[in-house]
Amino acid sequence: MRLRINVPGFDAVCRMVQANMGIGLIPDRAFEVIGAGMKLRAIPLRDEWARRQLKIAVRDSGQLSGTSRLMLDHLQAAEGQEKQQKQQNIAKAIADRAAPRA
Length: 102
Known about the structure:
Blueprint: H1 10-18, H2 28-35, H3 66-98
């Protein structure tokens, strides 16, 4: 039998797990604050699908304060560097596969 339950918050997820009703997926910080005190065990997920996708929310970037503009510029530059590093890693992996093996 397959059953999926949605609960209203991370504390409810942890209580469900504590009651041995199944497993739950919660953010690291929520586990640290709630689950650790309930004697639950955290198993890290390392798969790409488990990475959180965050977005920058801005109404009008032209109206930002100087500090907010600096933060926005920094985050956007960091995203560009991360994408470039991923592309380099992919190119290296392809080259490594194509290299003759001794």
